[in-house]
Write a structure and sequence with these properties.
Keywords: Amino-acid biosynthesis, ATP-binding, Kinase, Nucleotide-binding, Transferase. The chain is of the alpha+beta class. It is built from nine helices and six strands, in the order H-H-H-E-E-E-H-H-H-H-H-E-E-H-E. A hairpin with a 6-residue loop joins strand 4 (about 185-190) and strand 5 (about 195-200).
Amino acid sequence: MKMLGVRSVGLSLSLEKGLPLGSGLGSSAASAAAAAVAVNEIFGGILGPEELVLAGLKSEEKVSGYHADNVAPAIMGGFVLIRNYEPLELMRLNFPIEKDLFFVLVSPEFEAPTKKMRAALPAEIGMAHHVWNCSQAGALVASVLQGDIVGLGKALSADKIVEPRRAPLIPGMEAVKKAAIEAGAFGCTISGAGPTAVAVVDREEMGQKVGDSMVEAFWKEGNLRAVKAVKRLDRVGARLVS
């Protein structure tokens, strides 16, 4: 409201969540994005995407920390690289329009509190792992820009710092990743802090097959019930639908 220059009006918002809480899917960022876009539309759509991201950041700061990892792509759509925070610098990474990309999201009935999952991360990182992960980050960006889903999947699956610490805390996760790749996914990893697992494919029907295998692995190896969803890359981001 301050960014819009509105001082004398109060608003009450009703939000219907479409994401499970604490799932590693960025549900708090989705809420922040929806609220920012809705309020902006009410007052004439004055703010641009980067200004809306700044507004969403203020909301995220109170819930999960001052980071735009989720709220930037939620508002802007597609892939977004956060280059800097002071000042905020965002770079769109345009996945080729002629290619399709689907995410297979499998969420088990298991709580993975962000605080606990962050505490599992190492305080210091060895040079070899630092160099490796930086290389994979570069490969991921290049793969997105080239529309190389095979390369994207490889980079997504190659983390040597975060995933090795968090995967053992989610029952069955290692088996789920293996099942996803064996079923045809190009790559698989933990979504956010977990417990959701995310895999990438280029066809929806393949995504359904991969999702079924992941759900089965969660049950067989982790004794956890899980639900799957297959979602196409959203290139637009949060918008007014009615």
